[in-house]
């Protein structure tokens, strides 16, 4: 499959997930062997904050903008538990396609590791979770006679997809407690039903690669 998103091009192929895992664990190995030039985040540190996120759903040619909360707990000097919850409200106007009006909720949790030098921290992460497509009001695709129904029609009645997320970013200390971060990743969404895709292709379950970029602030405890 091909991916085209503003500011990013190229989807991960069949080796995309393994390459992302290799990147995450490569950072962990680098941390373990790092000398005094690189510092580690103290064990037990907690970051809690909010973010604004842009998600490009390649399958439907739609870009969502949402807001959310995120938290990180430093379980060991090199591994942290990382989670985020993001709400995408959709377009509440009358213009646009049906999929653009649909609200979506994304929840992910997983592992994060990074290296820090002075106020700057570079990190990589691997997370799993869900992407919930809300149910739309009114009749949905009542005039569509294609069997099976197009994917867009099927998820319009409400659907929860399994997702995995591989990415990373940079976090910079604005004060002793306040940090600003920017991160990006490949959100892989698993559509499990038999359906006609947006390009007309019949598929019995597939994975779509989607670019997600977020920025926000956290308070470090």
Round the Cα radius of gyration to an integer and report it: 19 Å
Low-pLDDT segments: 1-17, 31-36
Helix content: 10-25%
Number of helices: 3
CATH structural class:
Mainly Beta
Largest sheet: 8 strands, antiparallel, barrel
Strand ordering within the main sheet? 3-4-5-6-7-8-9-10
The domain count comes to 1
Classify the secondary structure makeup into a structural class.
Answer: mainly beta
CATH-derived architecture: Beta Barrel
CATH topology: Porin
Q: Using DSSP, what is the number of strands?
A: 10
Mean pLDDT over the residues: 83
What's the helix-strand series? EEHEEEHEEHEEE
Label the overall shape: elongated
Kindly estimate the percentage of residues that lie in beta strands according to DSSP.
over 45%
Q: Please give the alpha-carbon distance between the first and last residues.
A: 43 Å
Mind explaining what this structure looks like?
- By secondary structure, the chain is mostly beta strands.
- The protein has one domain (4-220): Beta Barrel (Porin), CATH 2.40.160.20.
- It contains three helices and ten strands; from the N terminus they run ββαβββαββαβββ.
- The chain has helices spanning 16-33, 98-101, 151-155, and strands spanning 4-5, 8-9, 46-57, 62-74, 80-88, 104-117, 120-133, 159-173, 178-196, 202-220.
- Strands 3-4-5-6-7-8-9-10 form an eight-stranded antiparallel beta barrel.
- The radius of gyration is 19 Å and the shape is elongated.
- Mean pLDDT is 83; it is low at 1-17 and 31-36.
């Amino acid at each position: 499959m091909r991916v085209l998103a503003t500011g990013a091009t190229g989807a991960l192929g069949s080796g995309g997930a393994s390459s992302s895992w290799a990147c995450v664990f490569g950072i962990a190995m680098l941390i373990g062997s790092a000398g005094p030039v690189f510092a580690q985040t103290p064990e037990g540190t907690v970051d809690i904050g909010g973010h604004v996120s842009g998600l490009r759903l390649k399958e439907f040619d739609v870009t969502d903008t949402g807001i959310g909360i995120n938290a990180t707990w430093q379980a060991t000097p090199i591994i942290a538990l990382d989670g985020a919850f993001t709400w995408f409200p959709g377009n509440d106007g009358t213009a646009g396609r049906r999929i653009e009006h649909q609200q979506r909720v994304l929840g992910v949790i997983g592992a994060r590791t990074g290296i820090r030098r002075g106020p700057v921290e570079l990190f990589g992460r691997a997370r799993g979770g869900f992407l919930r497509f809300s149910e739309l009001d009114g009749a949905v695709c009542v005039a569509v006679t294609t069997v099976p129904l197009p994917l867009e029609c099927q998820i319009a009645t409400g659907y929860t997809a399994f997702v995995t997320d591989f990415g990373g970013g940079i976090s910079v200390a604005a004060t002793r407690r306040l940090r600003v971060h920017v991160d990006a990743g490949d959100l892989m969404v698993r559509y499990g039903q038999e359906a006609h895709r947006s390009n007309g292709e019949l598929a019995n379950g597939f994975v779509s690669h989607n670019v997600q970029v977020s920025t926000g602030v956290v308070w470090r405890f």
